[in-house]
Predict the 3D structure of the following.
Amino acid sequence: QVQLVESGGGLVQTGGSLRLSCAASGSIFSINTWGWYRQAPGKQRELVAALDSGGTPNYADSVKGRFTISRDSAKNTVDLQMNSLKPEDTAVYYCKARVAITPTRLMYLYWGQGTQVTVSP
């Protein structure tokens, strides 16, 4: 079993910054891809940023130029640097990882429990 734990959420004012981190642990052979998603009250969960297996990022149009996703494969972690935050960024943020587990190397998707980000006007 694999566990993902997010940290770094909190309350910031418009224009501020936060750095989210997600750490994976458990029966991990390797982590192939990472993603950050968010869900605001009454809204669908949406992809914010993702890294493919080669480390190439992609971003939602709403966060391009403001957010940066990065990984540390040796530590099994992924970060999301969020700058110039806006009230519309307020949501629960979730990390997701595609993980090859030991010993079979079969791949599964795992989700964290989420961390609240609130941006006040």
